[in-house]
């Protein structure tokens, strides 16, 4: 009997090559959180037709159901699929096994031109595990090593099919602050000089005026930065310290075309009104509260709440904090809700917290209204949860991407099933599959 | 957190203290009286003044399997004076704390921390956790590296309810040195934090780290078999010393002899199941006990062996994949071990994770429930309290809300197994050392004074 269960699980896991067609779905009587920052709605319906959401709201207003489309939503929650920025999904298998790890190209001659989309492995265990955690979309980036420019990140979906890349070369990542300073030669001044020079060379290349003898960047890297200069490609800038944040916001005075996104930003609360006035969105690592470097002496878990209160658009990403991986994003968001019960702390409302891992990151990536939200016209990315999605004890029951129900199996679940008991009285565990 | 740029971009490459290297420097003279030769660097900690307190009415999860609503906890003279339920009459105490809607537990204990040895800010000058100059350094003591001003201690208290913690040397070495158990009490000196009467531990490490660190230098060990050969020869030499007259003092062998005598507890960093099984045999070969395997991501494959050995598994809830030997980590590890009647401890190994051990335990509980293993809240809280205390040899003194034990207590503002709950108050030996309602009742380290964010909620 156990064997049969395993075979079914295996079929579901291995079925990458033949994605099912989008199905029409009506989840009724559920607790629905649309991801737009509003509070959850009880006794609500989500309807999907042809891979798109056509309705999300109270049961009473739902469209007519189709045969076979109904899913009983009593005792479950429904949210949009999570949209997690700044992941390494698909770029690595084992962190410390360098052959399996494409996160950092430390011996490459190239930097800004590196293109994360070329390396994304849709069959990665981390993608499968994250999908099982309710993550349906993500941005993926390489890490900087010998240059302050990490390369060009991609937007991916986590569907169990061979086409993960939604948008290659979606953004460029540059590190300023302490890590940029170290890479550039030991000082923030060097990092800013590298940055200014790189954009100058990009401008020369773009305008056909490059003095061939003068380039510090190779042609590919300088060409890649042309899209940053023009604003066609977003520029993600990693900084933490308040003064560094202000310096980055000041770059717009020199380079008017930059489409900036701030990343990290532990001390953002100190300059929150300045960030809000700039209109530059933030992707923050939300639970940093230690002075782990001199550039984040003022780190506090209230950082995100204070920035949001000041009017900054904040998504959660780059997740640290001793809890690893995109699948733990709801835990991070839930911790920000917890702050509401802590005197003098600033947290997020439940709806805002969910938005920080769904609609807000989607908007920052240019997908407002299309992903990370349940409203008519948005993609049929749904997660059905067995409880409050931000609570650590909850987990997805079913996941849909573009209306296609996804397999949720992975290596970890197979190990779990094999070692459910330690009985080897008939055969070794190796035959239990 | 060792390399901010990389960890920001993803935790995949972070190996925390386990891969760092650095040279420790001699500890500076302390401001305490000279310690005796028998107990050098002895604890100078004495409890801070406490008020007799009655927490009532409150849900009590006592750390020893008890869990009841509408109860009370009586703290007096720094001890747990009594606990009671709805039908037992509470004592008449002037100072009461309303626990309505709240939950009281024993203080949380982290069996695996590097606070103080790898403090914040995590700059090279602070990297004092791995004496990575020889594969066996049982002569070093983690306490000689602890910087009491590490701001991480205060975050662990205020957000994690941590009242006791074990600081271990890192895992670069097969035998990394002595551990130290601390009360999470701010102090000018490490002696002022040392847990009175706690036994020493000795850190050992299996697997990838020692063979990588020393193999990369072209010296033994460079393989797992090399790891065992160096360990076994070291134990053989230690037995000679332990069986001799011990008159010629040898700091390394004194630690090893302490293990063989049963006075020093072995805490063994080890990921893979097969390797843990070999270590258990090595312990048999030389006559010592492994108190706990730390990290133990594959412990679920050998729950039977661990139960028989009486060895705890100190584990994360769901870390996996950051190194080859962690590839088979699964979220159900704790639940499968509990189901096999093996001892589970949830640990952090991380200055951030130590602030959320309660949440990690809850995730592990829920993963079990989804596979049909129902583990009561009271058992899950024991993973964070009494089980840790047992593996550290301090369970007679703390780890449960039992009469006569130290009044190490956390009042949570909700269910501690919920992401939405935080400590409201933390008492250590009956002294109120954190109160979310009182802006001044929180520790601020010397390092933070006059800096941005001083005294902020963290």
Automatic annotation (TrEMBL), chain B:
InterPro entries noted in UniProt: Amidohydro-rel (IPR006680), Metal-dep_hydrolase_composite (IPR011059), Metal_Hydrolase (IPR032466), Metallo-dep_Hydrolase (IPR051781)
Signal peptide: 1-29
PROSITE patterns from the UniProt entry: PROKAR_LIPOPROTEIN
Pfam families referenced in this protein's UniProt entry, alphabetically: Amidohydro_1
Domain (Amidohydrolase-related): residue spans on this chain: 103-430
Molecular function per GO: hydrolase activity, acting on carbon-nitrogen (but not peptide) bonds
Protein name: Amidohydrolase family protein
């Amino acid at each position: 009997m156990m064997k049969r269960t395993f075979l079914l699980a295996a079929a579901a896991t291995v079925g990458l090559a033949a994605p099912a067609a989008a199905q029409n779905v009506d989840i009724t009587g559920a607790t629905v959180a649309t991801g737009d920052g509003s509070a959850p709605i009880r006794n609500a319906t989500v309807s999907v037709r042809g891979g798109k959401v056509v309705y999300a709201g109270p049961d009473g207003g739902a469209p007519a159901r189709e045969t076979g489309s109904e899913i009983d939503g009593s005792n479950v929650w429904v949210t949009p699929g999570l949209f997690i920025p700044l992941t390494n999904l698909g770029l690595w298998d084992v962190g410390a096994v360098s052959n399996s790890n494409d996160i950092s190209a430390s011996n490459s001659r190239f930097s800004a031109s590196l293109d994360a989309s070329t390396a994304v492995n849709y069959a990665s265990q981390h993608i499968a595990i994250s999908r099982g955690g309710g993550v349906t979309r993500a941005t993926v980036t390489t890490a900087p090593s010998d240059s302050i420019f990490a390369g060009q990140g991609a937007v991916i979906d986590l569907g169990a099919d061979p086409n993960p890349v939604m948008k290659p070369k979606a953004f460029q990542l540059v590190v300023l602050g302490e890590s940029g300073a170290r890479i550039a030669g030991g000082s923030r001044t060097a990092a800013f000089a590298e940055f200014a020079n790189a954009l100058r060379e990009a401008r020369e290349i773009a305008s056909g005026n490059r003095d061939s003898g003068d380039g510090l960047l190779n042609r590919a890297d300088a060409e890649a930065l042309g899209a940053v200069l023009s604003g066609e490609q977003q520029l993600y800038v990693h900084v933490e310290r308040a003064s560094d944040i202000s310096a980055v916001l000041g770059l717009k005075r020199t380079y008017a075309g930059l489409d900036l996104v701030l990343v990290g930003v532990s001390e953002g609360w100190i300059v929150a009104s300045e960030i809000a006035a700039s209109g530059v969105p933030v992707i923050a690592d939300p639970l940093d509260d230690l002075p782990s470097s001199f550039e984040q002496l003022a780190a506090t878990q209230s950082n995100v709440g204070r920035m949001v209160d000041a009017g900054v658009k904040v998504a959660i990403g780059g997740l640290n904090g001793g809890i690893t991986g995109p699948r733990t994003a709801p835990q991070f968001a839930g911790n920000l809700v917890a702050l509401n019960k802590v005197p003098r702390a600033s947290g997020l409302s439940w709806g805002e917290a969910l938005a920080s891992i769904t609609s807000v990151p989607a908007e920052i990536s240019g997908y407002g209204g299309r992903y990370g939200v349940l409203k008519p016209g948005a993609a049929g990315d749904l997660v059905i949860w067995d409880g409050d999605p931000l609570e650590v004890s909850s987990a997805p029951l079913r996941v849909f991407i573009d209306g296609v129900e996804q397999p949720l199996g992975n290596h970890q679940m197979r190990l779990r099933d094999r070692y459910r008991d330690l009985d080897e009285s008939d055969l070794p565990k190796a035959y239990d599959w | 957190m060792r390399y901010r740029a990389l960890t920001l971009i993803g935790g995949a490459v972070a190996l925390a203290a386990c891969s760092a290297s650095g040279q420790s420097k001699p500890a500076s003279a302390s401001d305490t009286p000279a310690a005796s030769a028998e107990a050098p660097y002895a604890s100078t900690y004495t409890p801070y003044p406490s008020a007799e307190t009655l927490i009532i009415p409150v849900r009590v999860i006592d750390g020893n399997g008890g869990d009841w609503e509408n109860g009370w906890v009586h703290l007096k003279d720094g001890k747990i004076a009594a606990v009671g339920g709805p039908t037992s009459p509470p004592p008449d105490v002037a100072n009461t704390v309303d626990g309505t809607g709240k939950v009281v537990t024993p203080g949380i204990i982290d069996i695996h921390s590097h606070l103080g040895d790898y403090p914040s800010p995590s700059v090279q000058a602070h990297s004092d956790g791995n004496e990575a100059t020889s594969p066996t350094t049982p002569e070093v003591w983690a306490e000689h590296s602890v910087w009491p001003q590490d701001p991480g201690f205060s975050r662990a208290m205020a957000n994690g309810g941590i009242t006791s913690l074990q600081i271990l040397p890192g895992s670069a070495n097969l035998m990394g040195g002595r551990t130290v158990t601390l009360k999470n009490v701010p102090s000018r000196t490490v002696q002022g934090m040392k847990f009175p009467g706690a036994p020493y531990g000795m850190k050992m490490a299996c697997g990838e780290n020692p063979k990588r660190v020393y193999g990369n230098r072209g010296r033994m060990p460079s393989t797992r078999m090399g790891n065992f050969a160096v360990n076994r020869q070291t134990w053989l030499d230690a037995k000679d010393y332990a069986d001799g007259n011990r008159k010629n003092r040898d700091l390394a062998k004194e630690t090893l002899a302490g293990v063989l005598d049963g006075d020093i507890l072995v805490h063994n960093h080890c990921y893979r199941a097969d390797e843990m099984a070999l270590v258990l045999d090595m312990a048999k070969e030389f006559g010592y006990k492994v108190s706990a395997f730390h990290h133990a991501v594959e412990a679920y494959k050998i729950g039977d062996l661990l139960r028989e050995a009486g060895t705890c598994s100190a584990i994360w809830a769901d870390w996996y994949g950051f190194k080859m030997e962690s590839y088979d980590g699964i979220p159900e590890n704790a639940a499968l071990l509990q189901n096999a009647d093996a001892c589970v401890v949830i640990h952090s190994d991380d200055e951030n994770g130590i602030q959320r051990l309660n949440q990690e335990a809850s995730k592990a509980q829920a993963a079990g429930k989804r596979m049909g293993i129902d583990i009561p809240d009271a058992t899950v809280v024991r993973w964070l309290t009494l089980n840790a205390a047992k593996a550290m040899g301090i369970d007679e003194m703390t780890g449960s809300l039992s009469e006569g034990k130290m009044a190490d207590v956390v009042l949570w503002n909700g269910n501690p197994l919920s992401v939405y709950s935080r400590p409201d108050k933390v008492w250590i030996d009956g002294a109120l050392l954190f109160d979310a309602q009182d802006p001044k009742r929180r520790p601020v380290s010397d390092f933070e004074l006059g800096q941005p964010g001083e005294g902020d909620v963290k």
